[in-house]
Write a structure and sequence with these properties.
Length: 374
């Protein structure tokens, strides 16, 4: 039996698919920064979308543009208030540090105080004295990293502004885009997509608010513990711990290491006390705060959370760690809906507010295959 020749159309199709995949991957690599900003803006838009809907319902004759502007203005003021709440003690302690800096440097050179004693025990001062020329050359070469830091800070500021504008436009124009896309399918399928989308949105909102609340609690308790232990610059250290705690899996440990080292530099009893505090707090956060705050919205078991964070961190770094849990929650919602409908048991995902589908659209009966609303 003679082998059949491969059609030219099939060969061209395979070549076209390979080229299209390569071009798509190249575009993703080249525009990864913009894509990251877009993903972050999308999560913020999903989190603020319900608030805009409530303002539209509560304020008579309120246009969506006005409601969106009000919500973003309130969110900006809230973020500014939180920043001011932390920046005020940060500036005070920074000023105090600048005033004590000459004294600290002199004590370090003379081997006095906690820093001086530490440098004396680790023989750092002797190393600096023996390698003075190398240290000066290293300090002279810090100009390039400084320029890189300034450039990175400018890029970060541009990213923050871009994310804010993108999130605003997504919230403002999102319903039009969604309605236009759902108009391409029938009403029953559109209602199902709306319900699944509403459940995914609640997962994202619950994770963001829950994670932020846990970080605030961690920062406040750390600040109190540092004040009780008498560790200087407690506000600065607590702010770092709170920000680090936003990163799942490793953030709390990183913050604990920094706070513990700062406490040990102050005194050994303070360092031991901070270690005991973080060990106890980690147990409380892992077994009380996270289950109570996150389980009601994300509803993922610890094994799934751990695997999702590890895989996402390996693929996308810190951004992947931050988005791993909400993405895993959305995947779970979608898979549950697909599995239930495939087995003839459609899931009634609760919806409320402006996320609710039109009342005239209901799920078809599995037995009859027709719409029971008709």
């Amino acid at each position: 039996m003679q082998p059949r020749p491969v059609p030219v159309r099939a060969v061209l199709t395979v070549i076209g698919l390979v080229l299209a995949t390569y071009i798509a991957w190249h575009l993703v690599v080249e525009t990864r920064r913009v894509l990251v900003w877009t993903v972050i803006a999308l999560f913020f838009a999903v989190a603020l979308h319900p608030a805009v809907g409530r303002v539209e319902r509560w304020v008579p004759r309120c246009r969506r543009a006005v409601a969106t502007l009000l919500v973003f203005a309130v969110a900006t003021v809230a973020v500014g208030a939180l920043v001011a709440l932390f920046v005020t003690p940060l500036v005070q302690e920074g000023t105090r540090l600048a005033g004590r800096l000459p004294e600290l440097i002199e004590d370090a050179r003379a081997g006095r105080g906690p820093v001086g004693n530490l440098l004396e025990r680790t023989h750092v001062l002797q190393y600096v004295q023996r390698h003075g020329d190398d240290v000066r050359d290293f300090a002279a070469g810090l100009g390039t990293p400084t320029l890189a830091f300034v450039r990175g800070a400018a890029t970060t500021l541009a990213g923050v502004v871009t994310v804010f504008v993108l999130a605003y436009l997504m919230v403002l124009e999102g319903p039009k885009v969604v309605d236009g896309a759902l108009a391409l399918v029938d009403e029953v399928r559109a209602a199902r997509i709306r319900r699944v989308g509403a459940a995914c949105a609640r997962t994202v909102t619950g994770y963001l608010t829950g994670n932020l609340l846990i970080s605030v609690i961690c920062g406040v308790l750390t600040y109190i513990a540092l004040l009780v232990a008498g560790v200087p610059f407690a506000g600065l250290i607590a702010l770092f711990v709170a920000v680090a705690d936003l990163i799942p899996l490793v953030g709390a440990t990183l913050g604990a290491v920094v706070a513990g080292l700062a406490a040990f530099l102050h005194s050994v009893p303070a360092g031991i006390g901070m270690i005991v505090f973080f060990v106890v707090y980690q147990q409380v956060e892992n077994h009380l705060l996270q289950p109570v705050i996150l389980s009601r919205t994300v509803k993922l078991n610890p094994l799934t959370v751990l695997l999702a964070i590890l895989l996402a961190t390996d693929l996308a770094g810190i951004l992947g760690a931050l988005l791993a849990i909400p993405v895993a929650g959305m995947v779970k919602v979608i898979l549950q809906d697909v599995w239930s409908h495939r087995h003839g048991r459609p899931v009634e995902l609760p919806v409320h507010g402006d996320d609710a589908p039109p009342s005239r659209s209901t799920e078809p009966s599995p037995e009859s295959g027709t719409d029971p609303a008709r």
